Amino acid sequence: MTLNLEAHLLEGIDVFDFLQLIVSTPKDLAGKSYLLVTKSLLSQLPQTTIDTIDYCLKHDFVEIKELGRSNEYWITRKGLEYYYIEDSRGARFKVS
User: Is the pLDDT assigned to residue 93 strictly greater than 70?
Assistant: First the structure.
């Protein structure tokens, strides 16, 4: 993970921003987007970012693949639809 992505996660992000981080990462061979986050970084995240990730998991915007020392967060079709709708409206949704 690049320092820029880490900085965004450590700032505290909303749902749209989390999905945007995933969408903006390079795609795998199948053309799918995911974000790799180390467990050490996860332990440093502010509560707002943790709440955002939990919200995305609960509402099926992302799927998680737990690896040894990291997690992969894969955007789902539902997450992509939400992202593109919000992007076209210029709207933001904050988890409170």
Answer: no
Instruction: Compute CA 81 distance to the chain's CA centroid, rounded to the nearest angstrom.
Output: 14
Where helices occur in the chain by DSSP H, the ranges are 3-11, 15-24, 39-42, 47-58, 77-89
Gap between the Cα atoms of 96 and 51, Å rounded = 8
Query: What is the number of residues in the chain?
Result: 96
Q: Of 18, 73, 28, 79, nearest to 51 (Cα)?
A: 18
Encode burial over 59-81: b for 16+ CB neighbours within 10 A, e otherwise. Answer: eebbeeeeeeeebbbebbeebbe
pTM score above 0.70: yes
pLDDT tens string 14-51 = 999 999 999 988 887 888 888 999 999 999 999 999 99
